[in-house]
């Protein structure tokens, strides 16, 4: 199974954005420096010089890592968070014995990042205008492609080929919506709430009887 | 806004276009440019969904309502020249401007859908308000970005609504 970074690079074959693609291969110390800068100063005010200083590397290194420059930093951070999410839960996803377990694991991890990760929270709270456009209208298509590439190896263990893309599409939309604007009836930190969301609403939507394996 | 885009909208420009003094614009929109943009976007969104409701017309059953809403919504968005232009050239300004308005749209949509669902035969364990919330979110997302679904094809939309969106919600989504 290809790693999350490889799957992402492949999905973005036509070049989503230089920054975004480059970030998939970035080394952890540099991205950790970016995360610290973003929490401290915000995405808009963080410069590539800040990142170089924080990471203790030369400016040239940072400019090489972010060929899209500061303009693409938001994409780079988003990309990194998505890859990190999938790398972190890759083993748990691969270990899932049922579709139910797989989706509960994936939805919990994704909502966890969106509602609790310090960097993601900071951006969504203070500078949502820098990232929201990536998740709406035609720009959302790219993210749906990324989600499909990352979910495919896992979903295809339980779903027929024709049902995989529709499933990743609907799950990605659900998670994004719940993460950006949590409903008042749903607590993403409550495992029972996630189980109920997945079993009652998500699973029947992604695994309809017509296309389920016999 | 249609001619110059959101990014170039100014109080001066609006005053000139309307043939009124700048002070008149500021009396109506004391917050200046930001308030002007918010008001214009809220107005455009309201107009979009009012028109959509007219396109859909009276409908029996939540499945047909969703099918018509998805198709008409997609069509209306595709034909909306101002919005299409804005999304092509200044999505980074349009999307944040929509952010304050969309919760109200979502509220309206989910309360309407919840009323509809209370008249339907639901699967065991399904709460109409929760299901309506999820459906409203997915429908808005799909109209904005169809993704892997062909919202111009009635058969594909029927499958999306009955085999996916309502599969967990209605006891008999196929009917």
Describe the structure.
The complex is a heterodimer of chains A (214) and B (175). Chain A has a single domain, classed as Tetracycline Repressor, domain 2 (Orthogonal Bundle), CATH 1.10.357.10. In chain A, 70% of the residues lie in helices and 0% in strands. Chain A has eleven helices and no strands. With 175 residues, chain B is mostly helical. Chain B is elongated. At the A-B interface, helix 9, helix 10 and helix 11 of A face helix 5, helix 7 and helix 8 of B.
Topology diagram in text:
The complex is a heterodimer of chains A (214) and B (175).
Chain A lengths: L3 H8 L6 H7 L3 H14 L6 H8 L3 H7 L7 H23 L3 H18 L1 H9 L10 H19 L5 H20 L10 H16 L8
Chain B lengths: L10 H8 L3 H7 L4 H24 L5 H18 L1 H18 L3 H17 L9 H17 L9 H12 L10
- SSE topology string of chain A: HHHHHHHHHHH
* Through-space gap between termini of chain B: 45 Å
The level of helicity of chain A is 55-70%
- The number of E-state strands of chain A comes to 0
Summing up helix and strand content along with how strands pair, one would put the structural category of chain A as mainly alpha
Measured by residues with Cβ under 8 Å of the partner chain's Cβ, the largest interface is: A-B, 36 and 34 residues
Strand portion of chain A, in percent?
Answer: under 5%
The major sheet of chain A is characterized as: none
Mean pLDDT of chain A: 85
How many alpha or pi helices of chain B?
8
| Total helical elements of chain A | 11
Report the CATH superfamily of chain A: Tetracycline Repressor, domain 2
- Shape annotation of chain A: globular
Through-space gap between termini of chain A: 25 Å
What oligomeric arrangement do these chains adopt? Answer: heterodimer
């Amino acid at each position: 199974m290809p790693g999350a970074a490889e799957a992402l690079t492949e999905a973005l074959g036509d070049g989503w954005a230089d920054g975004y693609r480059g970030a998939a291969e970035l080394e952890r110390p540099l991205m950790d420096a970016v995360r610290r800068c973003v929490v401290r100063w915000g995405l808009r005010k963080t410069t590539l010089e800040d990142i170089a200083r924080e990471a203790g590397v030369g400016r040239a290194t940072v400019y090489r890592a972010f060929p899209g420059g500061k303009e693409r930093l938001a994409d780079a951070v988003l990309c990194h968070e998505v890859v990190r999410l999938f790398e972190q839960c890759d083993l748990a996803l691969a270990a899932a014995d049922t579709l139910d377990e797989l989706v509960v694991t994936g939805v919990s991890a994704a909502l966890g990042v969106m509602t609790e990760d310090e960097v993601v929270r900071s951006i969504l709270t203070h500078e949502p205008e820098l990232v929201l456009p990536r998740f709406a209208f035609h720009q959302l298509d790219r993210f749906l492609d990324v989600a499909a590439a990352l979910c495919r190896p896992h979903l295809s263990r339980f779903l027929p080929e024709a049902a995989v893309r529709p499933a990743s599409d609907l799950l990605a939309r659900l998670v994004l919506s719940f993460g950006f604007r949590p409903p008042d009836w749903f607590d993403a930190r409550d495992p029972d709430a996630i189980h109920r969301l997945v079993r009652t609403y998500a699973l029947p939507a992604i695994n309809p009887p017509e296309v389920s394996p016999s | 806004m249609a001619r110059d885009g959101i990014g170039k909208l100014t109080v001066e420009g609006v005053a000139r276009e309307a043939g009124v003094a700048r002070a008149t614009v500021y009396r109506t929109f004391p917050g200046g440019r930001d308030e002007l943009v918010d008001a214009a976007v809220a107005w455009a969104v309201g107009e979009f969904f009012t028109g959509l409701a007219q396109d859909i017309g009276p409908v029996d059953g939540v499945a047909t309502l969703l099918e018509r809403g998805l198709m008409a919504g997609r069509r209306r968005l595709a034909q909306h020249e101002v919005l299409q232009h804005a999304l092509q050239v200044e999505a980074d300004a349009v999307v944040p401007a929509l952010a304050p308005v969309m919760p109200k749209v979502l509220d309206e949509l989910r309360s309407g859908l919840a009323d509809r669902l209370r008249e339907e035969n639901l699967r065991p364990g399904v709460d109409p308000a929760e299901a309506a919330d999820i459906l409203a979110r997915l429908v808005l997302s799909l109209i904005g970005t169809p993704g892997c679904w062909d919202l111009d094809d009635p058969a594909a939309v029927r499958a999306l609504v009955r085999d996916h969106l309502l599969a967990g919600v209605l006891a008999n989504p196929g009917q």
